[in-house]
Fold:
Amino acid sequence: MKSKSRGVLALALGLGLLAALLLNASEAARACREGLLMCARLLIPSLFPFFVLSGFLNRLGLPGLLGTLLAPFASRLFGVSGAGASALLIGLTGGYPAGAAYIADMAKSGSVSKQEAERLLGFCNNSGSAFIVGAVGIGVFGSVKTGLILYGVHALAALLTGLFFRGKHPCAETQPLHLDSADPALALTESVRQAVPAILSVCGFALCFTVLLAVLDAGGALSALCAAVAVRLHFEPLFFRALITGLFELGSGAAALQGLRPCPETLSLAAFLLGWGGLSVHFQTLGVLSGSNVKGALHLTGRLLSAGFAAGIAYVVGLMIF
Structure:
């Protein structure tokens, strides 16, 4: 009975969205064009090379090679293998959802177990340095320094979140894959083949949520909601516009932050959105996990924890710098 009710509700929601799309076709088309431009200018250049490189390094044995180096630190702090801890490095440099793609690839190759991979998803899929410093630090606050501070806050929040996903028993190390046993040409070929559908999936979800937000805004629902909440809580409407859009799609939320005055509250909101990633990122993560046996249930919990930690730390830092 419950499944039937969910199906009816989903159908009604779909029909409602179809009607909204037909009534606001021009706004949807404009948003789609802007989304395609965002994919071409930001997502593909920043993510596709990392997708290829992370797959390539994984096939050449990076998890095993780093496993020995990181094992003592990873085992004591997070209860994961050294190979698993390498996912944190990829996630904090490549950005959403490169960390998840790397974890899925490690699980497929047997570098980590299914259970460890699912725990790693909770804190190793993060926003990248290029987006935080470039799009938020410079684009929103007009400061590389503020971007670097936000990146440090984001990394610290990821480490704190990892403590909540600590395993009771440290994961056993897997047998490393040495460079002399791998074919670099084959590894590169397979990495590119895997990266192409992954980046298409990421762009598809980003476009979907960009259009959805444009349709909601065209109907006036988004603006009305932001205004109502702002009046009730005595905040700027633009603040809640950034919050609500960022809950759906990180890029749109970052763009909406522009125009807000630099203050501890704005820095905290930016850190929260970067830690949360948006619903678009969650669907992107599920997309790159498809084909593996890794479930993404802990990813949502991890993003909520990371967003909360980041917001709190950023607010304290903001009190000192603004």
About this structure: The radius of gyration is 20 Å. Residues 152 and 214 are 32 Å apart (CA to CA).
